[in-house]
Structure formats: structure tokens, C-alpha cells
Amino acid sequence: MLRKRIAVFASGFGSNLQAIMDFAGKEDLGGEISLVFSNKGNSLALKRARENQVKTACLDPSGFTNRVEFDRAILELLKSEKIDLVVLAGYMLLLSPVLVEYYSNRIINIHPALLPSFKGTHGMKDAFNYGVKVSGVTVHFVDSELDSGPIILQEAVNIKENDSLEDFEKRIHAVEHRIYPRAVQLFCHEKLRIEGRKVRILV
Ligand code: GAR
User: What per-residue confidence (pLDDT) applies to 194?
Assistant: First the structure.
């Protein structure tokens, strides 16, 4: 099996990127992080990548006439790097069909809530403010709709009686950092089979 070439897209802090890089240093991820892409030149994610000797690229959407042109430029970059898998890790821009179609079933995302509940940019905070007692983390394939593709892994996180948002956030992140590298590993080892809405994990 060929090792997969992975691009991680991140807009901000990059703790999930860090978790995947750390995992790759300890276990057989089944691929290399060949590129870290960001829409924010000053993101900590880019700094983390450079510190780990991972190639980086940054494009600013404001330099393009529209988001389709922006995503076309990203697509050319991914093709030139022969990327097999795109891992969205806190990438806060919606992908246009030009990317989603070309990389169909080869883009994954992590969302800080139990989908299909609390879709969107503020999933964790929305769940907390709604008052649910259980929320969690979802890793899913990306399709043309927001936060709606087939679910790869999901794990529940309880909201405790006296939790502040920060307390809850810490536990959400701990789960993210544990399950996202595992999902990437499953993909790279070709252990995921999509059957309609269901993702079978081959053992
Ligand atoms: C993560 O909590 C991730 O689930 C969330 O952004 C954070 C990025 O953190 N993504 C979304 O909300 C996507 N809708 P990080 O930059 O430290 O990895």
C-alpha cells in the first residue's frame, strides 16, 4: 500500500494539526503530512508546521475575485503536491464544489459537536449554550453540504453541572486530539469503506 500524501488545512491555533504530527512521530500513520495550508498567514498552525519541517502554503482569499477562483488555486496546489487526503483541522472557510468534487471522499473534517446537531462555525459553544448534557466530537467525510458527510468516528463528551465553557472546551479538545489522528490513520490504511451514509471500519 502506498503511503498517502496528506494536506492539513488550518486557519488558527492548529492543536489538531499538532496532535496529528505528534501521532505520526510515534505511530504508523500510513502517510506523510506533505503540506499544511492556511488562509491566514499569521496562524499558529503554519508556525507549528514550519517547526516540524513540514512544507507550508498560504493563500489569502481577498486576493481572488471569488471563492471558486480561490479554491481552483488551492486545487492546483494540491495536484502539484500529489495530495491524496485533505484533512480539515479548524479550517474556517467553506469549500466550494471545485474542491469537494475533485477530492470526493478524500476530504475529512473534525467538528466539535455530535453531528447532525449543532452544525456550523460555533458547534461547541452552541451545544453548551443550548444546555445539552451530552455533546461530543465528530470526524466525517466532507460533501457538498455543511457538516453533513458520512460519519467516520464520533465520541460523546458530557457537560458537567459546574462546567464553564472553558472546562468543556478542554475535554472536547482532548477527545479531538485522540480521535482525529486515529481517523487519519484509518483512512491512510484504507480501512474506511463508505456505504451510502454509513462508513464501515474494516478490521
Ligand atoms: C477544533 O475544535 C475543531 O473541531 C473546530 O475548530 C477547532 C480548531 O482547533 N472546527 C470547527 O468548528 C469546524 N466547524 P485547532 O486549530 O486548535 O485544531
Answer: 98
CATH architecture label of 4-201: 3-Layer(aba) Sandwich (3.40)
| Mean pLDDT score across all residues of the chain | 98
Confidence of residue 21 (pLDDT cuts 50, 70, 90): very high
User: For residues 203 and 201, what is the distance between their CA atoms, to the nearest angstrom?
Assistant: 6
**Confidence band, pLDDT 50/70/90 cuts, at residue 114:** very high
Dihedral sign for Cα atoms in the order 158, 192, 188, 109: negative
Burial of 171 (0-12, 13-18, 19+ CB in 10 A): middle
Tell me if 148 CB under 6 Å of ligand 1. Answer: no
Q: Is 112 touching ligand 1 by the criterion CB < 6 Å?
A: yes
| Ligand 1 atom with the shortest distance to the CA of 172 | 2
Go through the chain and tell me how many residues it has. Answer: 203
Calpha distance 9→86 (Å, rounded):
7
Angle between helices 44-51 and 15-26 (to 10 degrees): 20
pLDDT confidence bin for 8, thresholds 50/70/90: very high
Q: Where are the domains of the chain?
A: 4-201
